[in-house]
Amino acid sequence: MDNNLNNNKNRAKKDGRSSNPRISGAILLAVSLCLLVYSGREFLKMHTPDILYPGPGVTGRAQLSDYAEDLKNSPGDTDIYILEGEQPGGSMLVLGGTHNDEISGQVSAITLIENAEVSRGTLYVIPRANNSGATYTQEMVGNPKYLELKTEKGIRKIRTGSRYANFAHQFPDPDVYENIGGGTYPGPESRNLNRVYPGRADGLLVERVGRAIVDFVNAEKIDVVLDLHEAVPEHYVVNCMVGHDRAMEMVAFALMGLQMQGIDIKMYQSPKVYGFSHRGLGDHTEAMVVLAETTNIIQGMFRGKPTQELLQDGKDPFYDILARSGKIFVDYDSERGSSLSERVGRHLSTVMELTRSIAYFSPEKMIEITGVPEVTELMENGIERYLEPDL
Amino acid sequence: MLEGLIIQWIYKLIMAYFVIIFIRNLFDKEATLSSQIMNAFIIIPFILRILSIR
Q1: Beta strand pairing status for A87-95 and A117-126?
Q2: Residue A1: is its pLDDT beyond 80?
Q3: Model confidence over A302-337: pLDDT tens digits?
Q4: Interface subset of B 7-36, CB within 8 angstroms of A
Q5: Could you give the number of structural domains in chain B?
Q6: Which residue of A has its CA nearest to B5?
Q7: Based on the domain organization, do A30 and A67 belong to the same domain?
Q8: Torsion of CA A190, A177, A273, A344, to 10 degrees
Q9: Residues pairing with A178 in the sheet
């Protein structure tokens, strides 16, 4: 009997089979379930939103679902911060986090919420326009999950997110995505907020978010919308503003102001292609819509290891090679890099120059904002100085 | 909307079917240790996917 058992065990060992599959199966299942609980908890953490620390200028808060009932309690709902001045004037909406991996847009919006004070007119800020995209990091790219800024008093973590909404929230992707204006894109672009404008009220999650933003702009009669983005240096729409037809005069004036501050920036008129904020939002609202782009090296196809340093400093020697051979559309050298402070500074200077531009063309729609650091100040002091550390 | 929900639940059911197969394979009498290890750990992403899609 014992001999038979030993023989079976030896044969099983020889064949590579487990001698007692029940016990080894149970042990492996237990280990697997332990790992499942651990990884599940890590996975769920991505749904915990970043905590913001609104400054004294914030006078109210709303939700996007206040303008689109069906977004309530959905991953597409997002916070709207309101900074209202005592004197009447115009209104401006700043959209950060349309693409959550284009981190300077989100950080600029947060800096406004934590620092800006408005004495005339109203400033609306949505730091995570595509809130679902803030819940996961783009697959197969290896970007850091968080931006970790070392402020004087401690670390401030901001989720980097993805340019697309989380596919767990909008599933499955169509093979080809056709937006309401007839623009066709690859399937995953149905989760890209900046391809769905003006959106559909009965459409996919991201289309409903786009529609809710259009409804919000119309309901509040917002005069100017600024959508903050970043781009790779090898793409020509970089370090620039793209304006809707009605906004071009205002954009040109703001461009001169930015160039006088020493900022290298271009301007383009919005192409007649639906999906983009500057076209879809501009055509379906009375607002003058502008999109701004800075240079983000970590998004580039030729960058090295995507580290926290690269995210913040934008110093990558591979891009020196491309710059020398004239293959990129920005003036770049890795000694200087393209720092987050500079990129946020460019965006915040754009906000301020647009308010000056409105004051010049339509004084009755003037918006007076104070406490916002501009590009020179940010490059001197660093963005860390203007953000609160995590508690 | 309804079409999306139906597809989601079909997807979840297919994933659940695979999880059952993996667990059955895990306790198969003829299973080798390497196949048991594979069947045990592949369950993790499948269950996470079932729980996350909504």
Answers
A1: parallel
A2: no
A3: 999 999 999 999 999 999 999 999 999 999 999 999
A4: 7-8, 11, 23, 26-34, 36
A5: 1
A6: A171
A7: no
A8: 20
A9: A184
B47 is in which domain, residue-wise?
A: 2-52
**Counting one residue from A and one from B, how many pairs have CB atoms under 8 Å apart?**
69
Q: Which of B26, B46, B50 best probes binding to A when mutated, by most A CB atoms within 10 angstroms?
A: B26
- Between strands A87-95 and A146-151, the pairing is unpaired
State whether A280 and A336 are in the same domain. Answer: yes
**Residue A27: Cβ within 10 Å count:** 12
Q: For the domain that residue A292 is a member of, what is the CATH number?
A: 3.40.630
* Residue A233 identity: P
Q: Say if residue A221 is in the same domain as residue A177.
A: yes
Please give the residue of chain B at the shortest CA–CA distance from A47: B52
- Reported confidence tier of residue A22, pLDDT bands at 50, 70, 90: confident
The C-alpha atoms of residue A378 and residue A264 are separated, in whole angstroms, by 16
Instruction: Specify whether the backbone of A16 is left (phi greater than 0), alpha (psi in -120 to 50) or beta.
Output: left
- Residue A339 pLDDT more than 70? yes
Judge if A16 and A164 occupy the same domain.
no
Pair A250, A339 in one domain? yes
Q: What ipTM did this prediction achieve?
A: 0.85
Token digits for A58?
């914030």
| Domain range for A349 | 55-386
The shortest C-alpha distance from A264 to chain B (Å) reads 44
Which residues neighbour A54 within 8 Å (Cβ) at sequence distance 6 or greater? A61, A81, A113, A114
Judgement on whether residues A299 and A178 belong to the same structural domain of the protein: yes
Q: Let me know how long chain A is.
A: 391
- 3-state SS track over A226-266: EEEEEECCCCCCCCEEEECHHHHHHHHHHHHHHHHCCCCCE
> Is the residue at A14 inside a domain?
yes
Q: Which secondary-structure segment (H or E) carries A122? A: strand A117-126
